[in-house]
Amino acid sequence: MQQITEAAIIMAVTFKKGMYELNTQSNFNYQLNRLVMWDGGDLEEIKKVGPTIHTSEDWKTKLISLGDKAMAEQRTENAIAYYRMSEFFMYDGDPDKKKYYKKGTELFYDYYKEWFESGRVERAEVPYEEVKLPVMHVKPFTEYGTRESGAAPKDVILLHGGNDSYFEELFFPMLYLAENGFEVYLFEGPGQGGVMRVQGKHFTYEWERPVKAVLDYFALSDVTIIGASLGGMLAPRAAAFESRISRVIAWSIFPNFQDVLLSASQGAGTRQFKLAKKLISMHCRSIVNLVFRKKAEKDEMVRWGLEHGKYAYEAKDAYGYASNMSRYQMLDIADKITQDILIVGANKDHFIPYEMIGEEINALKNVRSLTFRLFTDKESAGNHCNCGNSKLVFDTLMNWILQMKSADR
């Protein structure tokens, strides 16, 4: 098996840049770009297979096939990406879901084991209720990966993902932050990665609870929390109840999950959106289920959102999922957030209309400062979580942190 080498470890972290038309369906297209930009997939291979994916079943078979081919050709980095993301469109009850999640992650930790064996990246498991939250911890590096001798970090960052994340996907962003002088604790919480897929712990909207567990375990204070995607709601939520968080980066506009869900399935602000919201509020379970079923039959993104949502949030049907999502919001606790906050949006986000930022700005009345940065397609960063230009995004986040810390002096 191909192994990562010491020479590879001392190279500076680099990011790919660009967005490609790989599939006519917006969510398949985005996830294929994510596969290339973040996960290590080969662009030329994906360009060939992308147009042949029309259903979730196509996605599964094509990506497993690509993973098998990559393994046969000893292209382990590509195989990790294909196996890991093959699981993405597998649904609850599919025995291959856990199988390929574990296959991809086991390959990941074997392929990059030198990072861990050398001590450059430390792993820990934080007790949380009946499970353990996995954490990767890295201290600041000088350029090319040599750890600084006793140098104080520019800041301590608590980093996590969102609704469908695997924290291994943020491995190289974590290293990039460390390479630039930051100490980083990257963790998975309930509903994410192996905490849900292997340990069986599903989401909680009370994100301050897993965050408290991590802060307590490592005795952290005065940290910056960065939450990606749904983390754009979860991280501010945690900050509302946790004074040890001094700065908040919401790496997605995310005022209210129910509104985001209905925007994606019914269209933002449309008659159908308003009707669906009213039906949910009136507890019209059978009608809501019918509406979502009809939508899911025609739209693979709605199908994925619904199936993943029922699985991740332990809902028995569409109504249960959609109604539960009203608890996943920041608007009802926004007045408790008093820290500096940066909200990051994208002008072509296929999940979240960037116009939703107004709700957040109006609700965050007591923050110390509020910065909003809208990335655009002209910067190759207009898609969800700006995955087409990660370097630009992380450089922006780091600069903001340093500005906020400088203002505190």
Please provide a written account of the structure.
With 409 residues, this protein is of the alpha/beta class. Helices cover 46% and strands 13% of the residues. The chain has 18 helices and eight strands. Helix 8 (171-179) links the parallel strand 3 (156-160) and strand 4. Helix 5 (76-86) runs antiparallel to helix 6, helix 10 packs across helix 11 (231-241) and helix 14 packs across helix 15. Residues 1-10 and 143-149 have low confidence and may be disordered.
Summarize the structure.
The chain has 409 residues and is of the alpha/beta class. The protein contains 18 helices and eight strands. α12 (257-266) crosses α13.
* Major sheet strand order: 1-2-4-3-5-6-7-8
Head-to-tail CA distance between termini: 51 Å
Structural class: alpha/beta
Mean pLDDT figure? 93
Low-confidence stretches: 1-10, 143-149
What's the total count of β strands? 8
* CA-atom Rg in angstroms: 20 Å
The count of helical stretches stands at 18
Tell me what portion of residues adopts beta-strand conformation.
5-15%
The outline comes out as globular
Q: What percent of residues adopt helix (DSSP H or I)?
A: 40-55%
**Which sequence of SSEs, written as H and E, runs from N to C?**
HHHHHHHEEEHEHHEHEHHHHHEHEH
What about the largest sheet?
Answer: 8 strands, mixed
Task: Output the keywords.
409 residues; alpha/beta; eight-stranded mixed beta sheet; 18 helices; 8 strands; disordered N terminus
Secondary-structure blueprint of this entry?
Blueprint: H1 6-9, H2 26-37, H3 43-49, H4 56-72, H5 76-86, H6 96-111, H7 113-117, E1 122-128, E2 131-138, E3 156-160, H8 171-179, E4 183-187, H9 193-197, H10 208-218, E5 223-228, H11 231-241, E6 245-251, H12 257-266, H13 271-281, H14 285-298, H15 300-312, H16 318-324, E7 340-346, H17 357-363, E8 369-375, H18 390-408
Parallel strand pairs: 3-4, 3-5, 5-6, 6-7, 7-8
Antiparallel strand pairs: 1-2, 2-4
